[in-house]
Write a structure and sequence with these properties.
The chain is an alpha/beta fold. The protein is built from seven helices and six strands. Helix content is 43%, strand content 15%. Helix 1 packs across helix 2, helix 2 packs parallel to helix 3 and helix 3 runs parallel beside helix 4. The protein is globular and about 55 Å long. It binds 3-methylbut-3-enyl trihydrogen diphosphate (IPE) (2 copies) and magnesium ion.
């Protein structure tokens, strides 16, 4: 696989945790717990393959509508991951960032996020963006508010949460649904969309390899014709 056929940025909707647990007659939250393992696999395998950025959707703006005990389990799981995983990410030179409206999260969670972001800011192997209380519409709205306050209309994208990062080349959604569910609405404009029926806790290196192989076969045209793209890609630089 040539370097260009490896996506620089992969955005992942990790869906299917609840169904994974229900199939095993377990409470839904058991699926969320198991899902953390799949995130570890994704980070390790992505970083080995030279992916520069990974964005994982952990909790959407709309997920507050779930039963209160599921919401608090998810928040605790995130807090525990912040306590237990950050050192390991740091030693693997992973830069850790949280995207989303963190203002409503607990004080301890917010301070651990700040510490983790500061600790890992200079790491360059892989950038891991965890989307928590994130919604694509929220991101556009907060960016409009910031741009208006700054009195600037040019370079609007600098106010979005992903400013400075390449747009995702590849989007992966597990769990069988073919929808975006308010994820990265602005940034997905030209992303290749890969949908998998695998439930998130079962996501493994083989499934990542399938997504990457599928991606490598796409012709990305960005509005041009296929002929134009093929001529450009064979022109020596
Ligand atoms: C995705 O799994 C994780 C979150 C939304 C937090 P789900 O919990 O949505 O699992 P399903 O879709 O109900 O199976
Ligand atoms: C999307 O999954 C959000 C996350 C994976 C965090 P959902 O399960 O919330 O999406 P819908 O409700 O099925 O569209
Ligand atoms: Mg779901």
């Amino acid at each position: 696989m040539s370097a260009a056929s490896v996506p620089r940025h992969i955005a992942v909707v990790m869906d299917g945790n609840g169904r994974w647990a229900q199939k095993r007659f377990l409470p839904r939250v058991a699926g969320h717990k198991q899902g953390v393992e799949a995130v570890r696999t994704l980070i390790r395998a992505g970083s080995e393959r030279g992916v520069e950025a990974l964005t994982v959707f952990a909790f959407s703006s709309e997920n507050w509508q779930r039963p209160a005990d599921e919401v608090s389990f998810l928040m605790d799981l995130f807090l525990r991951a912040l306590r237990e995983e950050v050192q390991k990410l740091h030693s693997n030179s992973v830069r850790f960032r949280v995207v989303g409206d963190v203002s409503v999260l607990g004080a301890e969670t917010r301070s651990l996020i700040e510490e983790a972001e500061a600790l890992t800011a200079a790491n360059s192997r892989l950038c891991l963006n965890v989307a928590v209380n994130y919604g694509g519409r929220w991101d556009i709205e907060q960016a409009v508010a910031k741009a208006t306050a700054a009195g600037e209309s040019a370079a609007f994208a600098q106010w979005l949460s992903f400013a400075g990062q390449p747009d995702p080349d590849l989007f992966i959604r597990t769990g069988g649904e073919r929808r975006v569910s308010n994820f990265m609405l602005w940034q997905l404009a030209y992303t290749e969309l890969f949908f998998s029926d695998i439930l998130w806790p079962d996501f493994d290196e083989a499934e990542l390899a399938s997504a990457l192989a599928w991606f490598a076969g796409r012709e990305r045209r960005f509005g041009k014709t296929g002929e134009q793209v093929r001529v450009l890609s064979t022109t020596p630089v």
